[in-house]
């Protein structure tokens, strides 16, 4: 409520200063952007729930910096970052199992680490742990594909219509074991991500999932493994690779030990990539390779 009072001007000990008339390049670009006025009123940007507060605090910090800057202050381009008003993205997550990556992404959204919100969960197993978690957080759960004996399931066209009605921006597969239909891929080009528990293109494709992947890695004698995040096409694990994280395969590893080591990296990597996705920091190279732009230095990519 304190934040709300500050914005409304009703806080007895604080008033937002009037907008100065001097020319400050940072402040001019801020106030000239139509989104500036929308920002103060839109639920997409200002909410007094905990998981939106970092966005609000960061905005107020920039605002107070600008209004306290004197008329004679001069900035060069390298001394400040121009504000980039990016709308809060809406995410759909697909799961088939426990949904640990789904949970880590949801928690990161709640904590303000991701500029987005999960608005729907899609699963082919309505009783899986991921679906239970989604319902406990009041996230709508959709059954897809439709089983023959389940009238409530969605067809591919139903699913596309539902995601569009929810204004979903990106689809994240988090342990979803079904092949994504062509209708969905066409509806969301370069907007569907998957995470796989090996360093693709090794140990990927149909039949390589879960513990089967880690057993195959150990049996091969590979010294390294790790998660891969890639864009989804119409085949299993063949889309463009976006990010990877490497872990060692130890001499006496069991599949369970390797899986735990990879999963720990998965949780961190998927949050980082989703944050970049929602901040529109995915850049496509001329040869079709996607890169992640650094938040701190736009000229650096990974």
TrEMBL record:
It is an enzyme of class 2 (transferase). Its EC number is 2.1.2.2. Belongs to the GART family. InterPro entries: Formyl_transf_N, Formyl_transf_N_sf, GART, GART_AS. Keywords: Chloroplast, Plastid, Purine biosynthesis, Transferase, Transit peptide. This is Phosphoribosylglycinamide formyltransferase, chloroplastic. PROSITE patterns: GART. One of its GO terms (biological process) is 'de novo' IMP biosynthetic process. It catalyses: N(1)-(5-phospho-beta-D-ribosyl)glycinamide + (6R)-10-formyltetrahydrofolate = N(2)-formyl-N(1)-(5-phospho-beta-D-ribosyl)glycinamide + (6S)-5,6,7,8-tetrahydrofolate + H(+). Gene3D superfamilies: Formyl transferase, N-terminal domain (3.40.50.170). It is found in: Plastid, Chloroplast. Residues 89-274 form the Formyl transferase N-terminal domain. Pathway: Purine metabolism; IMP biosynthesis via de novo pathway; N(2)-formyl-N(1)-(5-phospho-D-ribosyl)glycinamide from N(1)-(5-phospho-D-ribosyl)glycinamide (10-formyl THF route): step 1/1. Pfam families: Formyl_trans_N. One of its GO terms (cellular component) is chloroplast. GO terms for molecular function: phosphoribosylglycinamide formyltransferase activity. SUPFAM superfamilies: Formyltransferase (SSF53328). The lineage of its organism: Eukaryota, Viridiplantae, Streptophyta, Embryophyta, Tracheophyta. It comes from Dovyalis caffra. It comes from the Eukaryota. Coiled coil: none annotated.
């Amino acid at each position: 409520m304190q934040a709300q009072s500050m914005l409304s001007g009703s806080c007895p000990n604080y008033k937002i200063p009037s907008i100065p008339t001097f020319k400050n390049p940072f402040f001019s670009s801020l106030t000239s952007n139509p989104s500036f006025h929308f920002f103060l009123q839109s639920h997409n940007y200002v909410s007094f729930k905990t998981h939106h507060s970092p966005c609000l605090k960061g905005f107020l910090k920039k605002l107070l910096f600008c209004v306290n800057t004197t008329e004679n202050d001069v900035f060069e381009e390298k001394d400040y970052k121009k504000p980039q008003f990016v709308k809060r993205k809406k995410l759909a997550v697909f799961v088939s199992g426990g949904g640990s990556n789904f949970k880590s992404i949801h928690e990161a959204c709640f904590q303000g680490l991701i500029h987005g919100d999960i608005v729907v969960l899609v699963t082919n197993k309505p009783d899986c742990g991921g679906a239970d978690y989604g319902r406990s957080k009041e996230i709508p759960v959709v059954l897809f594909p439709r089983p023959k004996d389940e009238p409530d399931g969605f067809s591919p066209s139903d699913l596309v219509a539902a995601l569009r009605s929810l204004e979903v921006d990106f689809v994240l597969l988090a342990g979803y074991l079904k092949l994504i239909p062509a209708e969905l891929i066409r509806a969301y080009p370069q907007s569907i991500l998957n995470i796989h528990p090996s360093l693709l293109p090794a140990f990927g494709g149909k039949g390589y999932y879960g513990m089967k992947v880690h057993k195959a890695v150990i049996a091969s004698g590979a010294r390294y493994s790790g998660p891969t995040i890639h864009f989804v096409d119409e085949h299993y694990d063949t889309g463009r690779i976006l990010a990877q994280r490497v872990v060692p395969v130890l001499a006496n590893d069991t599949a369970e030990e390797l899986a735990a080591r990879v999963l720990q990296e998965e949780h961190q990597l998927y949050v980082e990539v989703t944050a970049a996705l929602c901040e529109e920091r995915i850049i496509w190279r001329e040869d079709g390779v996607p890169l992640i732009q650094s938040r701190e230095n736009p000229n650096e990519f990974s």
